[in-house]
UniProtKB/TrEMBL annotation:
Belongs to the FAD-binding monooxygenase family. Keywords: FAD, Flavoprotein, Monooxygenase, NADP, Oxidoreductase. This is Trimethylamine monooxygenase. It holds the Pfam family FMO-like. The keyword Flavoprotein applies. PANTHER family: L-ORNITHINE N(5)-MONOOXYGENASE-RELATED. GO terms for molecular function: flavin adenine dinucleotide binding; N,N-dimethylaniline monooxygenase activity; NADP binding.
Amino acid sequence: MDHEDFDVIVVGAGFAGMYLLHRFRQMGMTARAFETGSDVGGTWYWNRYPGARVDVESMQYSYQFDEELQQEWEWSERYSPQPEILRYAQHVADRFDLRRDIQFNTRVVAAHFDDQAVNWKITTDDGKQTRSRFFVLAVGCLSSFNKPDIPGLDDFSGNSYFTGQWPHRPVDFSGQDVAVIGTGSTAMQSSVEIAKQAKSLTVFQRTPNFSIPAHNRPQDPEYVAYFKANYPELRAKAKTVYGGLLDDFDERLAVETPREEVEAVLEARWKKGGLTFLGGFADMLYDHRANIIAADFVRDKIRSIVEDPETAELLCPTNIIGGKRLCVDSGYYKMFNLPHVQLVDIAGTPIERITPEGILRGGEVLKFDSIVYATGFDAITGSYLRIDIRGRNGRALKDHWEGGPRTYIGMAVAGFPNMFTVTGPGSPSVLTNMLPSIEMSVEWMTEAIDTMRRKQKRVIEATPQAEADWVAHVNEVAQGSLRSTVKSWYNGGNIGDKPSVFMPYIGGLPAYVRKCDEVVENDYRGFELL
Ligand code: NA7
C-alpha cells in the first residue's frame, strides 16, 4: 500500500474547510487543506468588491459549534460587510489555530482514486503529490467566477475588474467613467458604491432582477443581547425552518387570502426588508397567481422609486419573482435618479465587443476608464469540474456528471469512494442559511468517518442505486417549484454549455436533515462500507 501523508485532504479553507479541519483534529485525525488564496475565508476572501455584504442577518450567519465563539464575536451591522466577515473567518482560524493545517497559495489540480492502494492521490499546482484516505471537497458553490466570453475583453486599455477576483488593494473610481456589466446581487451591491465615487456610471443590463431593500443598520445592542442570551434555543428553532433561518414564515396561501391583506403583508415585509420577502405565504413560489401579486407589488415599488418612467420600465423584471435568487440592495433603484448614472438595456442590442476605448454596442463605442464585470459564477459545480477528479477505474467526475451533477444526499458520489462534498449539488445549501447548512454537512460526514473507524472499515461509497434515487428525488421536488421554470445559476441557465438541471435540493433544511438522519438510523442506507 502506498504511504498516506494524511488521513484527510480537504480542498478549500472557507467556512466549510475550516470547520472540517477543526472536527478532524478533534477526532485525532491528520488533515491538510489546500487553499488557492493566501488566507482563509473562501468566497469572502475573493469577493472584495465595494459594497459586498451578506444578505442573511449576521446574528445567524455565523458558526454555532462553539458557544464561546458565538458569545465573544461582535457583529457591527445587521448585514455584515465583507471585510467584517473576512475578519471573523480570520478570527476563527486564529482561535482554533487552523492555519498550521492549511497550505495556502496552492491549487489542487487533480485528485485520483488509487484502486490498488485504496487512497486518493492529490496533485497540486506546485507539482507535488499527496496521498490521503479521505478526500473532502469544500470548494464552495459560488467560487468559480464567470468571466464572460465577450469578444475583445482583453483589448481594453483602461482598467478591467472582475467582482469575484477583486484586487487586494483599494480601488478608487473618483473622476472616472465606469461601466458595470451585470445586474445580479453583486452588480447591485457594487454599483451603489461605485456611483458614490465615479464621475459617471453606466450599468449594462441584459435581464432585470427583483430586489428587496436590505434596510441595513448598525446592530441594535438589545437585539444582540437577546440573541446571545438565547442562542441555543434560537439556533435549534432555526433548524426547524425551511431556510435554516429564523424568520416568520407563514403557511397561509396568498390565493386564498383577500388581496388587500396580501398587499398589507407584502408592504410590511418590504418595510422590514431582506431575503425572506416572499415568506408571508406558502404559495409564492408554487402558484403563478400568487407570484404575480408579489411581482406586481415590487414592480410598482420600482416605478415609485425611479423617477424616469422609461428607466423604471426597463428595471422592471417580467419573469417569476424569486425564480432567480432575490437580490437584497441598499439603494440600487434609487441610484438611477442620480444624474451621472444611466442604464443601458442590452437585451435587444447586445454588447458586440470590448474595444481599447470601451464597449461597442449598436455600432457605437461608449468610452470608459474602467469596466467592472459582475457576471456571476459557474455555480455549484464549477469549482469541482476545474479539478481533474477521477474515481474508481479512472472514471472522470466530468464524465459522471456529463448530463448534470449526481450525488447521494448532496455529500457523496457513486464510484468515488471516500470522497465527500460540502455545499455540493443535491444539497440544500444555496437555498438555505449557508453556515448552519455547512455545519450540518460537516458534522454528518465526520460522524460517518468516525463510525467507519469504529467499525474498522476502510471504504465508504454511495451505491449507484442510492445516487439515482436521490437525483430523481431532487428533480421531483424541484419540478413543483416555479424556480425550476426560470433560467438561473441554480439550474446552469447562466452558463452557455451547462446541462440544464436544477442542482440544489429544494426540499428545505429540515427535510434534508431528516433524510440524512434516516440514512444513519438505517445503518448508512445507500452506502457500502467495506
Ligand atoms: P448573477 O446573479 O448570476 O448575475 C450575473 C449578471 O451578469 C446577470 O445580470 C447576467 O445577466 C449578467 N451577465 C452574465 N454574462 C453576461 C454577458 N456576457 N453580457 C451581459 N451580461 C451578462 O451573479 P451575481 O454575482 O450577481 O450573484 C450570484 C449570487 O451571489 C447571488 O445570487 C447571491 O447568492 C450571491 P443575465 O441574467 O444572464 O441575462
